[in-house]
Amino acid sequence: MIENRNNQDKRSKKKSKKALIIVLIDILVIVLLFGGYRLFIYVQDKLDELTAEKIESGDSGDNSQDSQGLTEEQKAAKAEQERLRTEETERKELIAQADQLAFGYNYEGAIALLKSYHGTEGDYRLYTSLVKAIERYESEQSKLLLYGGVYNSVYEISHLFFSALIADTSRAFDGDSNSLSYNKYNLTIAEFEKILQTLYDQGYVLVNVSDIYTLESQEDGTKRYVANKFYLKEGKKPIIISEDDVAFYEYMLNDGFASKLVLDEKGKPTCEMIMSDGTISTGSFDIVPIVDDFVEQHPDFSYNGAKGLLTLTGYEGILGYRTNEMTSATYSEDVEEAKKVVEALKADGWEFACHSWGHKDMQAAEVELLKNDTDRWISEVGSILGPTDIYAFPFGNDIEMGGGIYIGDKYEVLKESGFHIFLGVYKEPWLHIKKNYVRMTRRPIDGQTFFDYPDRLKDLFRVEEIIYPSRPDKTW
Question: In terms of pTM, does the model score above 0.85?
Answer without folding.
Answer: no
